[in-house]
Amino acid sequence: MTSIQDKNTWSGRFNEPVAELVKRYTASVSFDQKLALFDIQGSLAHANMLSHCDIIATQDLSDIQRGLAQIQAEILAGEFVWSLDLEDVHLNIEKRLTTLVGDAGKRLHTGRSRNDQVATDVRLYLRDAIDQLVQLIKELQSALLDLAQHHTLTIMPGFTHLQVAQPISFAHHLMAYFEMLKRDAERLQDCRSRVNRLPLGAAALAGTSYPINRQMVAESLGFETVCENSLDAVSDRDFAIEFTAAAALIMTHLSRFSEELILWMSPMVGFIDIADRFCTGSSIMPQKKNPDVPELVRGKTGRVNGHLIALLTLMKGQPLAYNKDNQEDKEPLFDTVDTLTQTLRIYADMITGIKVKPEAMRAAALQGYATATDLADYLVKKGLPFRDAHEAVALAVRYAEQRGCDLADIALADLQNFSALISDDIYQVLSLEGSLASRDHIGGTAPKQVAAAIARGWDYLSKR
Ligand code: ARG
Of 138, 141, 422, 424, most Cβ neighbours within 10 A? Predict the structure, then answer.
């Protein structure tokens, strides 16, 4: 960051230069330079419209285009010199443009303010980020489907209260996350339509006296529509808050998943192994292999949740219209996008590196009387009221517990002590396979239902 001491853009109005500390405090160029290419894109559309509406000359337009093309090349080559004295990305680019092309550069800001300019840049940035994130969600979903389709017959315990509840397939469990991610992508798409509206033309806050054509700018930038109130256009950041809320939910889903991966990988459970490249060792305990990646995903969820609160808090006290508070929207927003992007990338890769241990899952499903509900349902189908069946099975479970065996290990004659309705077809019902197969409806864990869900999943991904 060099210090090009120059007249400030607004120096005509001021008696003394801004204090060094204040300059540092108010500058945003260190972080908002991330918006540079979107700023150029917006400026080109604006200049084009100004020329089209005869607000600037054709020659000015071509000078601006030439200058901005060079600036873009300098930025992409990492050669652009950002100056703290020029406060933010907008003034840095505008100043360089004027240096390159003279007066035409000074005409670019006609009918525009940094207030509508920055709101436009952030929307362009976020729209682009959303498109990439939706794609990354899709890649994670496809990794889940890939893994799930090998495991419709891999049985594990399903839990409630983290107690063994009923047997399910590993594929069914994975598909729960597929569903969450499907809604997450929907939320991003939905939010995109509100991001994708054009603030330019609102100028500082009240609109502009030049005969501009906002529709033309909206169309050239690919915005669906224009923001219909100039005060609202420059001041609200609800679209960024909405996005961050959607991002926090995605992180929350992945945090839950991470919690499970960590648990499943614990030697006490041993359902899975995560590939070594996602784990680290301990500097003191040679035997350790730690699931750092899922732990960090869980940790970084707190960070994104924090950004959501930061943005909400940033907005809540602001009177209309633009206030400098809004400059603080960028770092939380950028960090949310970066964190989520990295998390989704790493997750898709991690899922492909999961090693499943079906024997450990099966052994766990055989503990804890996971088919007790199946026995109760069996009795109900033979005519016993559900509450009575529940009671009979509870007694059978207690009996099995005392003998240290599973329900399926109890001899038929002994089972019949709990209900005379029981006959030898019960053993199929008490098997893990029988239990899964019986939950044969949409959303159930029966292997054929889960296979159908996976097929629908592939179909869904191919259409988006
Ligand atoms: N850097 C500023 C921001 O990010 C640009 C807008 C400045 N507008 C102003 N009236 N000071 O919000």
Answer: 141
Would you say residue 426 has pLDDT above 90?
yes
- CATH 1.10.40.30, the chain: domain bounds: 369-462
Lining residues, ligand 1, CB within 6 Å: 28, 32, 88, 114-115, 118, 322, 324, 326-327
Return the residue whose CA atom lies nearest to atom 12 of ligand 1. 327
- Model's pTM, two decimal places? 0.94
- Respond yes or no: is residue 282 known to be catalytic: yes
Chain segment 167-220, per-residue pLDDT in tens? 999 999 999 999 999 999 999 999 999 999 999 999 999 999 999 999 999 999
For the domain spanning 115-363, the CATH number is 1.20.200.10
Select which of 3, 11, 193, 282 is catalytic: 282
Domain 11-110 classified CATH 1.10.260.40? no
Q: Catalytic residue, from 161, 209, 283, 441: name it.
A: 161
Region 235-249: mean pLDDT is 98
Contacts of 214 (CB under 8 A, 6+ apart): 198, 200, 201, 226
Q: Do the beta carbons of residue 34 and residue 126 sit within 8 Å?
A: no
Return the best residue to mutate from 23, 112, 115, 331 for the ligand 1 pocket (most ligand atoms within 8 A of CB): 115
Q: Which residues contact 2 (CB under 8 A, 6 or more apart)?
A: 81, 83
What is the distance in A from the centroid of ligand 1 to the CA of 394?
Answer: 68
pLDDT at 292: 95
CATH number of 369-462: 1.10.40.30
Cα(7)–Cα(83) distance, rounded to whole angstroms?
13
Ligand 1 mutation pick, 114, 237, 318, max ligand atoms within 8 A of CB:
114
Q: Where in the chain is the domain with CATH 1.20.200.10?
A: 115-363
